Structures are given as C-alpha cells and as structure tokens.
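Supplementary Data S3. Sequence and structure tokens for construct A.
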Amino acid sequence: MSETAMQSSTVRDAGKGALLVLFLVTMIDMIGFGIVIPFLTYLVEDLTPENQIANIGLWVGLLMTSYSAAQFLFSPFWGSLSDRIGRRPVLMVGLVGNTVFFTMFGFANTLLLALSARFLAGVFNGNLAVARAYIGDVSTPQQLATRMGLIGAAFGLGFTFGPFIGGELSNPAARWSWFENTIFDSHPYLLPCAVASLLSLFSLAVAYRSLPESLPPESRVQSEPLPWATRMGQMMKNSASMLKSKNVSLIIWVSMMFIFGFTIMHAVFILYTEMDPVNGGLAFSEADNGRIFAMIGITGIVTQGLLIGPLSRRFGSRRLIPVACAITGLGLVLVPYTQATNAWSQILLVAVLIALGNGIFQPSSSSFLTRIAKSNGYELGVVMGAQESLGAFARILGPLTGGLVWTLTVSRDWPFDYHTAFHLCGIMMLLASLLAFRLPALDDEDSFLNNAEE
C-alpha cells in the first residue's frame, strides 16, 4: 500500500454537518472581530469622560488591540488543550465564551468594562487554530487544500457581515421608534452584540448535535503540556530564527510591514469618517461605516475568489506582491483626502483600492512563503507558525500605534494633523513594496510563467 493510501486510511473523515459547524465557528469568530468596527469609536466617545476627550484615539486603539493580543496569547493554550482533550470540547467552550462576552460588551458602561469584555472575547476566540487542526484530523492530503479553503471563505464572509451587522443595528432607538425607551435606547450598541451572541448560541446548539470528535483518544497527547512561558519562548525563538534566515526573512518582513500598515487603518478609519466635515471629516454614521467595511469585504471575496487565480498564472506571486502593497498604500493614503461633498463616490473608490490590494497580497504572500520554504528545505509548520506569530504581533501594534498617532496629531496643523496616521500607513506600504522587489526568484514559478508566455 502506498504512503498516501496509508495516510488516507487512518483519517477519520467528517461529514457535511461537521464541516458546516466549522464554517459557522470561523465565520462567527470573524463576525465577533468585525461587528464592533463601525460603532467602536462612537461607543468610546459615549463612555469617555469630558476631561479625557483628547484620549479617544488611544482608547480606540487599546480596544482594537486587546482582542488581537488576547488571541495571540491564548491561541497556543487552546491548541495544546485540544491536543489533550479533543477538538470538540474546546470549540464548544469558545462558543460559550463568545455568547457571554459579546453580550457583556454590549452592556459595557465604562471604558474599563468594555476593555475587559473585548479582551475576554479574544481569549475565548482562539478557535481558528483549533478549527484548522480539526480539518487536519479529518482530511486526506487530497482534501486538505479544499477544506482549508472553506475556512478562508468563512473568514471573508465573517469580516463582510460583521461590520454590516454592527453598523445597521447600532443605536436602533434613533432609527426605529419601537426601540425607544427600551434597554436598547440606554445601551445603543447592545443590539448588534446580542445578535452576535445569538449566532454563537445557534452554532453551539449545532455543534452539540452535529460535531463529532475528530481526535480519537489514542491520538491525543498523554504527557503534561509545556508551561505557557516555555511555549511562548519557543514561539519567539522560532520567529527570531526565521527573521534571521536569508531565504525566508524578506517575505516575512514584507508581510509584517503590510499587516502593521493595514491594521493602523483599523483604529483611525472611523475616527476620520465620523469627524465633522468642518474639521475635514465625512460625518458618517455607524451604518455608513458598516456599509463601507462590507464593501471592503465583498471586494476582497471577489478578488480572492475570481481574480487571484488568473493574475497569479499571468504574473506570478513574486511580481504581484509589490504591486499589491502599492495599491493598498495608495488607497490608505487617499482616505483623509476624500471630500464630504462627494463622500460616497470617493470613499467607495478608496475602499475598492484597499480591498483589491489586500485581496491580492494575502494569497500571493502565503503562496510565495510556502514555495520558498519548501524549495529551501524548511519545515513548513515552523515557517508558517513563525509568520503567524509575527503577523499577530503586527496586528497588536498596528491599532495601538494608529490610536496613539491620532491622539497626538489630530488637533495639530498640516502636515502633522489627522492625515498623519494615514501617511504612516502609506509609508509602511511603500517600504513593504520596495523590500518586495528584492524577493528572490523561484525557479518553478519562472519556468511556469515562461511556458505560459510561449
């Protein structure tokens, strides 16, 4: 019997019901991340004391960062726990946490309570790694790529629907009379959080009924897990070694710069769009911002679903990466130059540029990293783990930096005013693009492109 056949025979295949549950878990993870984006700035403004109004940008950055920081710190714990007790209970605990802490965030009446709820939601939202491990348990090598693509699709849909739900359902008492003088009037951001909790509760019920355990007892780790500090130390050591590696360090640095510049936007985009036009903003509502982020998500889905294949075959991943950085950077720099008189036409064009660049960059950089790691004999798990850790670190620093820069510059004069944070996004994308031109050629890709041209 061949090695592939032996591997296939030891895999416990999953039915459609189990894959649907994983799809829902991942999508709700991203809904939980994205649902707060349209109204987070408004919530911070409502909860900020008058004597601290200048710190709104910093608090927005902290709330955005806390979620990613919690996921970064606790994902290894959930992954290790799932290796010992199985994937199913860990996934279900995560859904319970989602249900509780989404609701807690909607009821938050102080900044510290909101920060605590957001951090705890991130703690329990480390399900993505466990969902990927589940798919690895139940998939043959031939099925793996397609089923991992299911996670990617759920990721994109969650980021599309999350901001849309958060924007459309925010402050319902101001839009629909039947919500006046209710709890949704005194807590204007409870409704979208309650919807996210109900979605999580629905997924929990489906998981309880339809999600079998993927990891049999004989395959579970029996030894005591490594201490958290040891595990984090190993992760940092692996990340540092990859940054020093001559062959793969360049693409990892490019990815880090891209993610850092892109996530600065998460903190400052709505700080700009909700600002009064007299001060240069667009006076957008929560619903307006939710629609913009939904458009970004839809454009990203179309780009990754329809465009990336033909573009990759025509130009190759190495050539697409610097172009993607440049397109994204152009969109980010143009954000604060939109005019309130033509707000929608201009901001939609900017959103398409941002989403198009990001939609090209993500699969291109992942493909290039995979190929160069394999061609140089690196263990793919170590390389991808290092890249994910460093990317998470960039996602933590990005919103915090954006909020801090906004706080320090928003009241100043040009060029160091509210444009500054977006200029910083552009600088990071320019550096990433210039560095990407130094990426080494891949023999298999160049050969493929040459044959295609002939």
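Construct B, processed identically:
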Amino acid sequence: MNNNHNIRVVITGAGLTAPNANNIKDFRDALLTQKSGITEMEVRYMGTVAAGNCNFDEYLYQKKKMRRRGTRAGSISIYCANEALKDSGLSLDSLIKDRTGIFLGITEHGNVETENEIYELHKNNLDASLWSHHHNPRTVANTPAGEVSLNMGITGPAYTIGAACAAGNIGIIHGMQMLQLNEVDLALAGGISESTGTFGIFAGFKSQGALGFHEDPTKASRPLDVDRNGIVVSEGGAIFVLERMEDALKRKAKIYGEIAGYHVNSDAVDFVLPDTQRQIECMKAALSKAKITANDIDIVNLHATGTVSGDVNECDAVNVVFGQSENTYINCTKGFIGHAMGAAGALELAGNLSSFTDNKIHSCKYIENVDPKCQMKNLVNGEPVNKEINYILSNSFGMLGINSVLIVKKYRE
C-alpha cells in the first residue's frame, strides 16, 4: 500500500449503536439471524413513516446536564466513542490526550435543532427572544466530534468530515492517514447520524420519489428487490479505535483487522445520480493500493440503498470489477437497519468485521425477488455462507458524487 513509511494501521476497538443492536456482538448476531431494526415513527406534517431509530442509554457515559446542552448526534458519538475505547482494552487515563484524535464522518448536521426551533418560533408568534442560546454550538458542523472531546477530555484534533453517505468510510480513512502522518498516536474514527430527527430529510426523499415504504416496516428497506421503492432513513453510529500496528502489538491488543486499501473519488456528473464508471474506478484504485486483485476479495458489502437506479448502477459497477471472480461473495446491510447516512459505511464495516473470526458471511435481508438488473454471482441471500475470510471491501457512495471504498484484511503478522 502506498503510504508514509508503509505504516500498518489496525482496528483494535469498536463501539456502535444501530437500530437493531448496541454493540458489535449483538449487531453481528442480529445480521446473522435476519433481525430488522426498522419500525414506524410519526414525523410532523408527514404522518407515519418507516425509520430506523436506536435505543441506547444516552446517560451511560454522559450527564443529563450535558445532554440537555448537546445534541442527539453528540450523544450517539459519545456512546460509540466510549464503547470503542472500552472494547479496545484502553482506559481514558491511559491515553495521551493531545496525541488522540477524533475523526467522524457526517452527512448533515444542525438540521434537527434548526427545524425544531423554527417550529417553536411559529408556535409562539415568531417571538425570536425564545430562540435558544445553545443554537450556535449545537448546529456547527464539528459538534459531534467536539462533544466527544468535551466528554472524554481529549485535546488532540477533533472534527467532522462532511461527505454525505460516503462519510463513514472517509472518517476511518482519515483516521488511518493521521496515524501514518504521526499527527496522532490513537484515532477514534468512524461515522454518525441523527437523521431521523429531521423532518426535512424525510420530506426531501419523498419529493424525489425515493422514500421507502411498505405496510410491514421491516420490508420498507428492500435493496436489490424488484419491488424496492426507496430509502428508509435511520440514525446510528460506529466508531473504531485505530492504532499503528506496532503500538497495538506492544500492548498485546486484540486486533479486529488491518486497513489494507482505500480510495475516494468524485463523479462530477450530477447532484444525486451516481456514475457507474467512477464507482468502478474507485474500487479498482482501492484494490491497487492494497496490492491485491479482485479475486482476493472475499466479501463485497454493497452501498445498496434500495433506490431503483442507485442499486442498478452499483451492481453494474461491481459486476465489471468482480464478475469474473469465483471467490467473491456479495452482501448488503441496509435491509436490516435502513440508511444511516453518515454512519452507514462504518456500521456496515462493523457488521462484517467478525467474519475474520467466525468465517461466516452475513446475508442480505432476504430478497424475495432479485431485480434481474441486480443479478450478481455469489449474492448472499437468506442464509449466511460459511467461508474463510481474508479480505472485505466496503462501498459507500454519496450525494454530489462522492465515492469511498475501504478494504480491510484479516490481521497477520
């Protein structure tokens, strides 16, 4: 891999909250047993919609006063970061705080607070004196990472990376790069989303004709199904502890996997429509950086949002890159949890990481009728596949044509 001094970076901790689980073990079990986390919720002006909401203890690592001052995105980030650190076997006291970095991918931030305050403004005869004095710190884009910094006393770099639905991967990629540049000695990196708190994202997808629905909410998110009708909006987060391999080995840490390759590029074509050729180029560049071929990849985890055109574009791209590979199996995750936007890539990686130890590939949420335009060799549908896993490739693509591909490999000395 082409990087500074070929410094190897590994994942040593994982913390998450998803609509169907609140830790990596339960999340893995949910995916292997086809457990959906999608339910119904009421959204003002829209009525009942399918959505993926998390159910974790906001006060496990955070005092009520700080939660009142902060945001849902911040509470998700604080929970995931603390869980990741605990999972890594490290303690806050053991960290060199100014050599620890926090790098979180986000899709959007500030919508929830702004929409709620405007709603209250109109309910109170446009009395602007009632506008919250917490508005500005709650809505700046760096809030999720900043709230983790405040909570954990971390004084190193702490910021968010806005990259639409490619952001979860990019948070991890950036954390790895900062370790390789020797800017930090430990990175808390991943992605988070509070998207179900905003009316606008539901209304926006509905006006595009891209909001998924079904009388059974667990079937509202149906990637690759011929009857799919759009995205189910979800919240959630996944944050990983990243370390240089030499540091992890020195402290005899458990290692989930090693970051082997990555690439980020842009379509430069359309605000929302993806470009197959740029996706192909992104996957091929990631393989090149990892110094492997398509046949070395055991799992491709699709972005697969459940939109009619998005799924077809990605399947076309994956078939070009992996269509000749007998070794590569294809799965996807959003059928279980919906689309967690900035958290999606990080959550989807977390859901597959355990494949390195249990040698199973979790299935897509059962697809009743695979769209003929989405047919792929070795698509895992319904039941897990037993197979030794050495390499996982995860796709995450976002609006404004941002693409990210991340390759993680089984740790070997």
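The radius of gyration is 20 Å. The mean pLDDT is 96.
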